[in-house]
Amino acid sequence: MAKAELMNYEMALEQFEVVIGLEVHIELNTKTKMFCGCRNEFGNEPNTNVCPVCIALPGALPAVNKTAVESSIKIGLALGCSIAPTGRFARKNYFYPDLAKNFQTSQYDEPIAFEGSLDVETPSGKVHTVLIERAHMEEDAGKLTHIGGSTGRIQGAEYSLVDYNRAGVPLVEIVTKPVFGAGAEAPELAAAYVRSIREIVKALGVSDARMERGNVRCDANVSLRPHGTEKLGTRTETKNVNSLRSIERAVRYEIQRQAHILANGGTITQETRHWHEDRGATSAGRPKSDADDYRYFPEPDLVPVQPSKELIESLRASLPEKPADRRKRLAADWGFSELEFRDVVNADLLDSIEETVAAGAKPQAARKWWMGELARIANESEEGVVPNITPAQVAELAALVEAGKINDRLAREVLGYVLAGEGSPAEIVAARGLEVVSDDGALIAAINDALAAQPDVIDAIREGRMQAAGAVIGAVMKAMKGSADAARVRELLIEMANK
Amino acid sequence: MSDLIRKTAAELAGLLASGEVSSVEVTKAHLDRSAAVDKAVHSYLYQNPESALASAAEVDRARAAGEKLGPLAGVPIAVKDNLTTTDAPTTSGSKILEGWIPPYDATVVAKLRAAGLPILGKTNLDEFAMGSSTEFSAYGPSRNPWDLERIPGGSGGGSSSVVSSFQAPLAIGSDTGGSIRFPAAVTGTVGTKPTYGAVSRYGLIALASSLDQVGPVARNVLDTAMLQDVIAGHDPFDSTSLPESLGSMTEAAKKLDIKGMRIGVIKQLSGEGFQAGVTARFNESLNLLANAGADIVEVSCPSFEYAIAAYYLILPAEASSNLAKFDSVRYGMRVEPNENATIERVMAATREAGFGPEVKRRIILGTYALSSGSYDKYYGAALKVRTLIQRDFDAAFAKADVLVSPTGPTTAFKFGDKIDDPLAMYLNDIATIPANLAGIPGMSLPNGLAVEDGLPVGIQLLAPAREDARLYQVGAWLEQAHENIWGKRMIDFAPELEVG
Amino acid sequence: MSEITPDLVRHLAGLARILVTDEEVEHFAQQLSVIAESVATVNKAIDADTPSTSHPIPMFNVFREDVVRPSLTQEQALSGAPDAADGRFKVNAILDEE
Question: Tell me, which fold does domain C6-43 have in CATH?
Answer without folding.
Answer: Histone, subunit A (1.10.20)
